[in-house]
Amino acid sequence: MAYIIDGHNLIGILPDISLSQPDDEARLIARLLSYRAQGAGDMIVFFDGNPLSTAAGPGRGSAPRPSWPGMVVHYAPAGKSADDAIVDFLRVARQPGQYAVVTNDQGLTARVRSLGASILPASEFSSQMASRKSKRRTPASIATAPAPNPRDPAFADLYDEFLAAEKAGEQVSQNALSDLAVWIERLYSGDPQLQQLAAMALGQSRDPEAVQPLCDALTHADAGIRAEAALALGMVRDETAAPNLAERLSNDNNSMVREAAAQALGIIGSSKSIPALETAASSDKKAKVRKAARTAIDAIRARR
Q: Reduced to 3 DSSP states, what percent helix, strand and coil does the chain have, rounded to the nearest 5?
């Protein structure tokens, strides 16, 4: 079953996001993407209003990103509310019963039930998100997880720890990786510096739950984030990520990303990746990508 989210209605009952915040929609989208990456179903989010087109990303006054894997965001057209847009969507849906509408709005509840959709109260949905998140949190992390600021000196310290560990061939301390759910949410935060740091943390965690959000990040507009996500997937070493990495190796327009994908495939070691690696080794335009692909092939065959 997929969720249809009454966006502003849900924001209104969340304890840490306010409708008065200029980035309330972006915060909600990040929260929902994090929740979905932890196993929730697909989501369609509806907001009131029709924001102006800017390059700032999702949120009030900015152009909504149309979709992420497993999530689509809609803004109600002029003259209509999000409630109206949800009802219009269900009226033309082939199977409205496959959707659960997340809202506390009683008027909308009656309208969508008459169309065959089910209702999940926004308050209950919020509790489910909090419950899933709390399972991944330590007591210390609950008290120390405000809205992330990538310019905070703490992030600089953590970044230095990653660099030092990488040079020494060691793992980042478990204290830095204590809360997977927080890092997943930060991966969708919208700040490139913080997203790259989050990708590194998720890779270092080597937790299978990090695979889906990192695969999502492989399609990010920022090449640095795509490359970091590819390297992180290599660290997790989950073979289910290999097809996504092979697609980046074959089709990404940035050589840094292709090189990172080749390196990750070599670390994961799936023999199914060899055809894509052989193609890159013989025909990629960049010598460093060809070299990385050949090295990956040698590593996979050596393991076999």
A: 60, 10, 30
